[in-house]
Structures are given as C-alpha cells and as structure tokens.
Automatic annotation (TrEMBL):
Keywords: Membrane, Transmembrane, Transmembrane helix. The keyword Plastid does not apply. Belongs to the DP1 family. The keyword Transmembrane applies. This is Receptor expression-enhancing protein. It comes from the Eukaryota. It holds the Pfam family TB2_DP1_HVA22. One of its GO terms (cellular component) is cytoplasmic microtubule.
Length: 196
C-alpha cells in the first residue's frame, strides 16, 4: 500500500500541480499563478512535516490513506484546501515572523560561507600535504631505482678501469696549493669513472 501512496502522491501531488503551474505561467493568469504558488508553499510545508511524522506515526491505522486524502483536499478546486491553509495559517505566521526569518537566513548564509571557506582551506591543505607526501615517496623510490642502476654501472666501469687507475692518486679541489698532476692515464681513468 505504501507503493500505491507514493505513486498517487507523485502523480496527484507533484506532476498534476506542476503541469497546471506551467499552464498558469504560460497563460500569465495572475489568479491561477497565485493559486498554484499557495499550493506549492503548503505542499513544501507538508513534505517537510511528513519527513518527521513518517518516523513516528507510520504505525497509525490509515496513516497513508489520510495523507492521500489530505493531498486530494489540498488540490481540490471545490475545497481549495491549499488556499484556505495558506490564508488562515501560513500567511499570518510568516508575515509576523518575516523579519526574524530573514535575519536567521542571512546569518545562516554568512556562517555557511565562512564554514565553506574554512573547510575549503583545510581541504586544500590536506590535498597539498598528500600531494607532497606522494611526490616525496615517489621521488625517493625513483632516486633509489636510479641509484641502483648507477651503482651497477660504476662497479662495471671500476672493474674495467681498475688496472689503469692507481689507488694512491687523490685529487683535492678545495686547497689552493699546487698538487702534482697525475699522469695522463690516471686522469683518463678518473674522468671515465665520473661519468654515469
């Protein structure tokens, strides 16, 4: 039966009024336009209230039947339920509380903007930190891989040229004293071992 309720509510509570709202806008008939605007305001309040009443009153006998009857009462051109509820209750209440509601909405908008900016900055910081961490881990893995290749290359070069390079030859670049120049074969061996 719940499925029947949702189906009838979709057709009669939403699609039917939506089509007649379209016709009112198309024909530019102010009377029809106001009638359907009152319906949509009441229907929005009904849907909001229904969210909470469904939790607590769904066990009540004939609950869904009463909701279908209420939507039909709102729509009926004979009862004019939505116009009646709007004029008797909603309009006077909203008129008396309009200033407070507007102030609350402005404050909520400001708070939501501040919260959005705050969480946006935090989200960007977290994303930047994650990107840096991923890049550093990726760079570390890449440098380890390159180091392993270069160490293999150096060991093969050192193995080939170890007979030509004497182990006692050292070159100091930081001191300005004149150093004895190594022999030509020693400088070629050092030059070739410096290449990767």
């Amino acid at each position: 039966f719940i499925l029947l309720f949702f189906f009838s509510r979709l057709i009669f509570g939403t699609l039917y009024p939506a089509y007649y709202s379209y016709k009112a806008v198309k024909s530019k008939d102010i009377k029809e336009y106001v009638k359907w605007m009152m319906y949509w305001i009441i229907f929005a309040l009904f849907t909001t209230a229904e969210t909470f009443t469904d939790i607590f009153l769904c066990w009540f006998p004939f609950y869904y039947e009463l909701k279908i009857a209420f939507v039909a009462w709102l729509l009926s051109p004979y009862t004019k339920g939505s116009s009646l509820l709007y004029r008797k209750f909603v309009h006077p209440t909203l008129s008396s509380k309009e200033k407070e509601i507007d102030d609350c909405l402005v404050q909520a908008k400001d708070r939501s903007y501040d919260a959005l900016v705050h969480f946006g900055k935090r989200g960007l910081n977290v994303a930047a930190t994650a990107a840096v961490m991923a890049a550093s881990k990726g760079q570390g893995a890449l440098s380890e891989r390159l180091r392993s290749f270069s160490m293999q290359d150096l060991s093969t070069i050192r193995g080939d040229s170890s007979s030509t390079v004497p182990p006692s030859v050292t070159v100091r670049t930081s001191s300005k004293q004149s150093q004895p120049k190594p022999s030509r074969s020693a400088s070629e061996g050092t030059g070739s071992s410096g290449k990767c």
